[in-house]
């Protein structure tokens, strides 16, 4: 699978004012700060580090055994994460204004196993992901797609009118429900896995008598300088 091949060179800061963390050296997850979540890259959750597509049973076994807090995203989290990549609220489908959101989506999630001609893009420069959560025994999922644009070693077909466009649809999102879709290893289908980010509490260091004397001394020096 092509995790982040070449994609780290895509334009950074594509969605202005939306805080996220992305370390290209970390192949497992990226972080959505405004939701306080680490989100597994689809290129990783697709196989959980195994050699083939992870089944629902594999995903549930991983969730049960891991000590890092990874779990299926909730329905509300799923919708919010999906909507976070919507950069053209007026369009449903392909649009140039959606390019920013779609390009960032694939920058953060990498590509899947469906195409192996151009680092996870097909011969025309197209790729997609189906991502979702478990609903009873079926997977509820949405579709994200993009054409390569200004990505090293990946070209978009010269005859395509969509090279500078991205795809997003949110009518009645999540859109589809399917059984056994994770077992289709030839497709770009992956579970949406998340975990809460740890809350960092700043350490409070008590100031002893020596510390207070140092502070008073610094204050006295500053007063003399101003004098």
Task: Pick out its properties.
227 residues, 21% strand, alpha+beta, disordered N terminus, six-stranded mixed beta sheet, 23% helix, five-stranded antiparallel beta sheet
Task: Walk me through what this model shows.
The chain is α+β, with helices and mostly antiparallel strands and 227 residues long. Helices cover 23% and strands 21% of the residues. The strands form two sheets. Strands 5, 6, 7, 8, 9 and 10 form a six-stranded mixed β-sheet that branches. The protein has a five-stranded antiparallel β-sheet with strand order 1-2-3-11-4. The chain is globular. Mean pLDDT is 81; it is low at 1-14.
- Helices, by number, come to 5
Query: Separation of termini?
Result: 68 Å
Number of extended strands: 11
Q: Sketch the major β-sheet.
A: 6 strands, mixed
The helix/strand order is EEEHHEHEHEEEEEEH
**Segments where pLDDT lies below 50 for 5+ residues?**
1-14
Structural class: alpha+beta
- Fraction of residues in H or I helices: 10-25%
How many whole angstroms does the radius of gyration measure? 23 Å
Q: What share of the residues does DSSP label as strand, in percent?
A: 15-25%
Characterize this entry briefly.
The chain has 227 residues and is α+β, with helices and mostly antiparallel strands.
């Amino acid at each position: 699978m092509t995790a982040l091949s070449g994609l780290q060179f895509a334009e950074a800061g594509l969605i202005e004012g939306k805080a996220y963390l992305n370390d290209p050296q970390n192949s497992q997850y990226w972080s959505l700060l405004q939701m306080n979540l680490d989100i597994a890259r689809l290129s990783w959750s697709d196989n959980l580090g195994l050699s083939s597509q992870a089944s629902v049973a594999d995903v549930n076994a991983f969730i049960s055994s891991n000590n890092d807090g990874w779990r299926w995203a909730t329905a509300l989290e799923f919708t919010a994460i999906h909507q976070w990549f919507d950069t053209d609220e007026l369009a449903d489908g392909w649009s140039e204004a959606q390019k920013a959101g779609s390009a960032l989506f694939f920058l953060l999630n990498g590509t899947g196993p469906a195409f192996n001609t151009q680092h996870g893009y097909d011969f025309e420069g197209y790729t997609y992901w189906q991502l979702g959560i478990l609903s009873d025994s079926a997977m509820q999922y949405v579709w994200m797609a993009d054409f390569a644009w200004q990505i090293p070693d990946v070209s978009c077909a010269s005859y395509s009118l969509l090279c500078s466009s991205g795809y997003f649809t949110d009518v009645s999102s999540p859109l589809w429900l399917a059984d056994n879709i994770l077992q289709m290893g030839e497709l770009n289908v992956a579970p949406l896995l998340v975990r809460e980010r740890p809350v960092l509490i700043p350490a409070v260091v008590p100031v002893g008598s020596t510390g207070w004397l140092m502070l008073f001394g610094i204050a006295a020096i500053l007063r003399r300088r101003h004098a």
